[in-house]
Automatic annotation (TrEMBL), chains A, B:
It holds the Pfam family Aminotran_1_2. Belongs to the class-I pyridoxal-phosphate-dependent aminotransferase family. Keywords: Aminotransferase, Pyridoxal phosphate, Transferase. Homodimer. InterPro entries: Aminotransferase_I/II_large, Class-I_PLP-dep_aminotransf, PyrdxlP-dep_Trfase, PyrdxlP-dep_Trfase_major, PyrdxlP-dep_Trfase_small. GO terms for biological process: alpha-amino acid metabolic process. It comes from the Bacteria. Residues 38-384 form the Aminotransferase class I/classII large domain. Gene3D superfamilies: Aspartate Aminotransferase, domain 1, Type I PLP-dependent aspartate aminotransferase-like (Major domain). This is 2-aminoadipate transaminase. Its cofactor is pyridoxal 5'-phosphate.
Length: 394, 394
């Protein structure tokens, strides 16, 4: 994946574009795509777990009708809005289908934010959210994330001090990159504060279905929530199907904005997704397979981290209960420097600094356990331990 | 298609969103979707001419690989960038694949425009472009379009008067809605003025392949052009594949912005499109079929306009040489009022005012000849003549 360098350009970019920090992760992925490198750096779900036969079946069923190849409405095809509403116990009028949940985030920000409006994010942050809020030139305030998700106590103090956010954004389940899940108290408190102070909560939830341990959490309650979901992590990224759930008022605003942004989504991709998500027997079995396999991979990773990496340095992490990522602390190490040694040793990760807003996070790193097999993960951690050992010898 | 009403909303929209005029066309389409109405109002290509068998074949070929279901890079899959570059005699690095050409327009505007920057559009305007430029809160200057496309003489006077546009936008072939094609002189002059004054030309060209009479025009020359193309009108809208051709600098800026907007397009839809566009025997035959059938429909429409409509009122139009639209003037009539009578008579069109920026265009209307058969078009014009007759009797 290539990432442009603004500095080399002779074209004057807009202020909106100049405000965006390029994704260091994308630059990094290019370096680590060498076949001899075991990469835990990516943010992709496992290609080998994509149900390609069932998706091909959906495609052949749907594309036989020429009407599936025509334009559709900006809000998305009705059958998919109904399936999503049904799964989540809401009404189709509260659901808008987007081109991946990233577009839902982008359009929500475009619809609700003016330059200078305050947005509160977690630190570390989902970089795709940071880019969106930067692109509308929002004032970004980052709160160091806690083991219970967004730091609602600190948020409350900010509000008492007169800070007036327009949006609070969090990845509520299996945070990317921090791995944590917002507790019941965090969710309740966020809803109360949003009601009292009139801000919007964007509950970004691409990973919620991928829980393999612990207890499922109810979504953030209340009517100040814009909830984002996605088919990318449970079916396939290339469907480019995400959705936004919100009050019909918000749905209407985003719909108007979408007309200008790209008119509408793909009729056939949306009908395929409705066919897949609406097949509850298939989905139950498939998501259960995903959870089982991600649990196996996570266990292989954390087992190796404790034994192999723990043998050469201090290692701190929270045991993943779902999602795709493990967020590590290696006290006393600079993970940006470690990365050079790691790539030489044949392993890659994303240094914590790539996700930092204000906090340094120089001793953190994100590991994905989604795309490598248990054996590969064990070998990857062995190489990581070698890199740490190398770094220690300078 | 539904169009939201901002006034009923209790949510405060962003200034960007408040600046957008809702599409009157979408409101209208909802009214005219009654099965007893012969609608010439839509902007869709003919569903019956979509090559659905060949597209289904491409889908089954492509979706058999799980890698086609994974994320791809923001600039688009390499094979499609190559096919597009090859067709248009350019380099793949100058091509960026987008989610329909509307997204290319939106991202170009976001990348290059700051609030208050001047953008020059034709009057009547492609409404999707107007929405995009309004959403970045540009200062919009509209030049009444001429039979040779954008009014370059008037543009030159504006430039002499010190107006400094950042972008000049036009639909260069078979303008939507005005039907006209930019002449060689217009194209050359636009390029010269852009070079002299440092603005960008967005050459929006979704219809260029659909020429069924007259002589093909070369694209607007020079290195200040961002050229937009689309698979929607020659293959199928639901592929949601468009593209932008520009200098690598511009491509890089748009690519960075796209990461935040929606990460990337659909791998399989892009690979399907590469398979289709790359099959030059199929494309040659298919586009030739499209041209022949659109020519037949256009001839049926204009024949009926001359005889049936010409019998009840004055009718002025330029004979279409391609594309999907015929732009009519009915001197002395108010087409917004005529529409009520027309829908009662069982026919629909879009009144000129829906496309007007500054000009009134109250005696104009846009007719699409793309989606009705020749017999239906003849009957539609008969009904339109009835409506004109009704209106005359008050």
């Amino acid at each position: 994946m290539s990432s442009p360098s603004l500095s080399s350009s002779t074209v004057r970019p807009s202020r909106a574009l100049s405000s965006i920090r390029g994704s260091a992760i994308r630059d990094l992925l290019r370096v680590t795509e060498r076949p001899d490198v075991l990469s835990m750096a990516g943010g992709l779900p496992a290609t080998d777990l994509i149900p390609s036969d069932r998706i091909a079946e959906a495609a052949s069923r749907v594309i036989s009708e020429a009407s599936a190849l025509q334009y559709t409405v900006s809000a998305g095809v009705r059958p998919l809005r109904e399936v999503v509403a049904d799964r989540d116990g809401t009404h189709p009028e509260r659901v808008l289908i987007t081109h991946g949940s990233q577009q839902a985030l982008f359009l929500s920000a475009q619809a609700l934010l003016d330059p200078g409006d305050t947005v509160i994010v977690d630190d570390p942050v989902y970089v795709g959210a940071l880019q969106v809020f930067q692109s509308v030139r929002a004032e970004i305030v980052a709160l160091p994330i806690t083991a219970e998700g967004t730091d609602v106590d600190r948020l409350e103090r900010l509000l008492s001090d007169g800070v007036r956010p327009r949006i609070v954004h969090t990845v509520s389940n299996f945070h990317n990159p921090a791995g944590v899940t917002a507790s019941a108290r965090t969710r309740r408190r966020l809803a109360e504060l949003a009601a009292d102070h009139g801000f919007w909560i964007i509950e970004d939830d691409p990973y919620g279905q991928l829980r393999f341990a612990g207890r499922s959490m109810d979504p953030i309650p209340g009517d100040r929530v814009i909830r984002l979901g996605s088919a990318s992590k449970i079916l396939a990224p290339a469907l480019r199907v995400g959705w936004l759930q919100a009050s019909p008022d918000v749905v209407e605003l985003v719909e108007l904005l979408r007309q200008g942004a790209d008119l509408c989504g793909s009729t056939f991709a949306q009908l395929m997704t409705a066919d897949l998500l609406g097949d509850s027997d298939f989905m139950t079995a498939h998501v259960s397979d995903l959870r089982r396999e991600y649990a196996r991979r996570a266990a292989a990773l954390t087992g190796a981290l404790r034994t192999d990496l723990g043998a050469v340095c201090g290692v701190e992490f929270i045991e993943p209960e779902g999602g795709m990522f493990c967020w590590l602390r290696l006290p006393g190490l600079d993970t940006a420097i470690l990365l050079d040694h790691a790539v030489r040793a044949g392993v890659a990760f994303v240094p914590g600094a790539a996700f930092a807003v204000d906090a340094g996070l120089g001793d953190r790193l994100r590991l994905s356990f989604a795309t490598l097999s248990p054996d590969q993960l064990t070998e990857a951690v062995r190489r990581l331990a070698t890199a740490v050992h190398d770094l220690g010898r300078g």
